[in-house]
Here is the input.
Amino acid sequence: MLEPIKRVLVPLDGSKRAERAIRYAKRIASATDGTVILLRVVEIPTQRADAQVYLDRVSAAYKLTEKSDELVSSGSKASMASAQATRTVFGEKYAIPIPTLAEPTEDVIVEWAEAEENKVDLMVVCRHGNNGSERPLGSVAREIVLHRHPSKPILLVHEASPEFKSYDAHALVALDGSSFSETVLSPAAYLIDALGTPEERERVRQQKGTLHFVQVVKDSPEPVVKVLDNAFEQEQEKYDDWPEVDKAINYLRDMKKTFDDELGAVLVLQTDGYVVKGEDPAETLVKTAESSERTGVGGGYDFLALATHGKGGLLHSLHHKIVHRDFGSVAERVIDATTLPILSVRPHKLLTPEI
Here is the structure.
């Protein structure tokens, strides 16, 4: 994702819990007067009409702005949006049948999201939804993220996830020193930027969104080490005798500078870096995200961001050299252990972690 988020896909299964994802999608899309796409997959074509009625009702309930049946030009759409005091969120609705009964629901959703003509920027899906079928959306969401992850980023929300904060948004971004893990930076930046955009069109943004780059290490003299800028480099010389910490500090400092000079300069963002001590990467990430006072985030994190393999398991990451553990089990355990929204990204090209 190299541009602002404009089109957000929300797969639904008919349950109220699955619909919870719409609130998050609407908040994100409102930053660009974007579009929330409601998608319902039905098992047989005869169910399509009922599914369309359901989508119409849901779209109206969440006050998504209907587009004309005729093609809306970008100019007229912009004029329509700018006339509103609050930002406009458009709605699109699609009820599609499974091509063959043997094709899993998750494959249909991923194929639709990947289709170039649908122009999906982000998928938002709730981890727990259930329409009484054998394949509730909760299990489908898990399958999509862990094994069939599309090239589009996914925001995985839980039915108990907290609401996004107003404007002063914070994200924990899990890094491990590999270029693979860094692929989450751009999507996380555009998402945190969207959350900081006021819904009232005339309101001036008061706060910058913040990305906290976090790397987990096994050996450290302190539970949490904040990475200082180059001007304060001498103050962190005390970690020279701790190779893991010293390497992580230098890495995160370089990442912060590169990000701040490039994408951070374009968007209204700020960054911090933290080296966190922990034997278990998954447990440490969740504890850090949920006990946000460890990194000075009084209001808590809005989401946790990480890169995933997304097909047959997840790539070795989060200090693979130390724990020698497949990241599939780490990411899966992170998903199971927290109710925070999780932004997951699968790189277009799988990269091998640097050894």
Remarks:
- Confidence is low (pLDDT under 50) at residues 69-74, 129-136, 310-328, 350-355.
- The first helix runs from residue 16 to 29.
- The radius of gyration is 21 Å.
